[in-house]
Amino acid sequence: MKIYTKTGDKGKTSLIGGRVSKDSLRVEAYGTMDELNSFVGKAMTELDTETFKDMLEDLEAIQNELFDGGGDLSNVMKERHYKLTEASIEVLEKRIDELMDEAPPLEKFILPGGSPASATLHIARTVARRAERRTVTLMNEEEDVPTVVVRYLNRLSDYLFVAARIVNARLQVPDNEYVRSAKVFRTNDKKKGE
Questions:
Q1: 166 pLDDT exceeds 80?
Q2: What Å distances lie between residue 10 and 6, 98, 181, CA to CA?
């Protein structure tokens, strides 16, 4: 089997149900999801299986869901069956809540970094936000874009932020606070009157 087909040599690419320019909004949206998936994969290589078993399971599921969402965005057939569902968003929300219970208190903005895996998860978070913006642009310009993809990417960026903080916490690497940040987050663990 040859990996190259030469069908894209003139700047066009195939979708599910059609062909478009490689710089179309649709290709930009699902291409950014592919980039995001690669950063998630890189983060996985930086996490040890003993300390981060739960997060590695999350991230593997997320990689598959990103593939599903990218496929959903590349589908321009008249009758479509989308793979990404609300159930995936619900799982992300549950995991965010669980990880937040483990997270150290947060009052100020933090700078991306700390451990290598945390830094990679922060990169993935920013790419998730870009994928979300690209998908919203596509949604505003064209019909029949699965809105579940936007909601999923929005929640995923939250998950990746929390995951980056948990990686540092489990490795006992402190988050680096933005030095000019005011106290912008409220912690739930403060006693009344403090």
A1: yes
A2: 9, 48, 49
Nearest to 124 by CA among 66, 70, 72: 66
CATH number of the CATH domain containing 58: 1.20.1200.10
Residues spanned by the domain of 43: 20-75+84-177
Give the count of domains, the chain: 1
| Rounded CA separation 55/95 (Å) | 9
Q: Which residue, 22, 20, 30, is CA-closest to 132?
A: 30
pLDDT in tens, 34-72: 999 999 999 999 999 999 999 999 999 999 999 999 999
Length reported for the chain: 194
Q: Do 108 and 178 meet the contact criterion of CB atoms below 8 Å apart?
A: yes
> What 8-state DSSP symbol labels residue 9?
T
Which is nearest to 157 in space by CA: 185, 106, 123, 107?
123
